[in-house]
């Protein structure tokens, strides 16, 4: 199909993601019971935790891509790192927003300078900085090298953010997935796991599409550079000067 | 905290997250269409 970045594989993946998201909405908002302590607010768990975990995964992909780019100067990994950071930024933004709304119910405030919240905000600022570096008007290799170095910072920041609830006393609850609460209801646990799967599928689907868009951007950039060079050569051959005389 | 207020926050949370994802998808599609017109067929190997 021309004019889009889709292929048969991505269309299947997209259909699975959409179907999964519809099922997740059904389970999260209708079938899952309310929690004894959290009440209806527990329904935010099914979006907050999956977006956070998939965002962290996305940042590790960016770190991996940055390392490989610095090592091998691979355009494929450079674009993968960039695409993954874009999706990670959106998912981390979703985590922050859902966390703030959940915090209003659980803690009575939208925001507090708790260790987990602060490190998440810091991580969000870092990824926005990384994406800002990606837009700097400079030669592509230099920009990619600089972005890869900044991208490496996402690794330790993500780790600190993940372990913030273990290393410091925080309002935020501890890990939900690694130490599953045995009292969690069967449907609640299933819905949480479904959320993980659906957001992982969404990430994979978006990653492929964003990769292809960025690949096209690189090709357009190359074509523009080639056209500019050809124009300059043509001007020189016609007897024109590259620098206008005063 | 009333149940109705909790529901409002739950629905707002889901709406905002899905809207953010939808914006990313729509912008990607628009950009892909615009860029595809500028790139020769042989450089779009996956399509």
Describe what this molecule looks like in 3D.
The complex is a heterodimer of chains A (246) and B (47). With 246 residues, chain A is mainly α. Chain A has one domain: Four Helix Bundle (Hemerythrin (Met), subunit A) (Up-down Bundle), CATH 1.20.120. Chain A has helices at residues 8-31, 45-72, 75-106, 115-133, 140-152, 154-167, 186-237. In chain A, helix 2 packs antiparallel against helix 3. With 47 residues, chain B is mostly helical. The interface between A and B is large, with 41 and 32 residues.
Brief summary:
Chain A is mainly α. Helices cover 74% and strands 0% of the residues of chain A. Chain A has a single domain, classed as Four Helix Bundle (Hemerythrin (Met), subunit A) (Up-down Bundle), CATH 1.20.120.
Gap from first CA to last CA of chain A? 52 Å
What's the mean pLDDT score of chain B? 85
Supply the CATH class of chain A: Mainly Alpha
Q: How many structurally independent domains of chain A?
A: 1
The SSE order of chain A reads: HHHHHHH
The helix/strand order of chain B is H
**Quaternary status:** heterodimer
Query: What is the arithmetic mean of pLDDT of chain A?
Result: 87
Largest sheet of chain A: none
Please work out how many helical segments of chain B DSSP would assign. 1
Q: Report the structural category of chain B.
A: mainly alpha
Q: Please mark out the parts of chain B with pLDDT under 50 across 5 or more consecutive residues, or reply none.
A: none
* CATH topology call of chain A: Four Helix Bundle (Hemerythrin (Met), subunit A)
Biggest interface, residues from each chain: A-B, 41 and 32 residues
Radius of gyration of chain B over all CA atoms, rounded:
19 Å
- Beta-strand proportion of chain A: under 5%
Secondary structure layout:
The complex is a heterodimer of chains A (246) and B (47).
Chain A: H1 8-31, H2 45-72, H3 75-106, H4 115-133, H5 140-152, H6 154-167, H7 186-237
Helix pairs in contact in A: 1-7, 2-3, 2-5, 2-6, 2-7, 3-4, 3-7, 4-5, 4-6
Chain B: H1 3-36
């Amino acid at each position: 199909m021309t004019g889009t970045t889709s292929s048969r594989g991505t269309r299947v993946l997209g259909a699975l993601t959409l179907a999964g998201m519809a099922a997740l909405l059904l389970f999260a908002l209708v079938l899952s019971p309310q929690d004894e302590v959290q009440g209806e607010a527990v329904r935010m768990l099914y979006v907050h935790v999956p977006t956070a975990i998939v965002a962290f995964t996305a940042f590790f992909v960016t770190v991996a891509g940055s390392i490989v780019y610095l090592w091998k100067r691979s355009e494929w990994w450079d674009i993968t790192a960039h695409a993954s950071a874009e999706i990670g930024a959106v998912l981390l933004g979703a985590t922050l927003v859902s966390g703030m709304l959940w915090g209003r119910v659980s803690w009575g405030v939208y925001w507090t300078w708790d260790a987990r919240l602060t490190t998440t905000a810091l991580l969000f600022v870092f990824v926005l900085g990384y994406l800002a570096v990606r837009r700097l008007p400079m030669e592509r290799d230099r920009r990619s090298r600089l972005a890869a170095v900044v991208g490496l910072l996402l690794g330790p920041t993500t780790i600190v953010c993940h372990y913030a609830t273990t290393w410091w006393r925080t309002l935020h609850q501890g890990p939900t997935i690694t130490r599953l609460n045995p009292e969690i209801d069967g449907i609640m646990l299933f819905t949480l796991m479904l959320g993980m799967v659906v957001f992982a599928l969404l990430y994979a689907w978006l990653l492929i599409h964003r990769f292809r868009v960025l690949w096209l951007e690189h090709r357009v950039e190359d074509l523009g550079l080639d056209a500019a060079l050809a124009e300059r050569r043509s001007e020189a051959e016609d007897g024109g000067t590259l620098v206008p005389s005063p | 905290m009333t149940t109705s207020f909790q529901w409002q926050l739950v629905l707002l949370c889901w709406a905002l997250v899905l809207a953010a994802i939808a914006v990313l998808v729509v912008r990607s599609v628009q950009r892909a269409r615009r860029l595809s017109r500028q790139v020769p067929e042989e450089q779009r190997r996956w399509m």
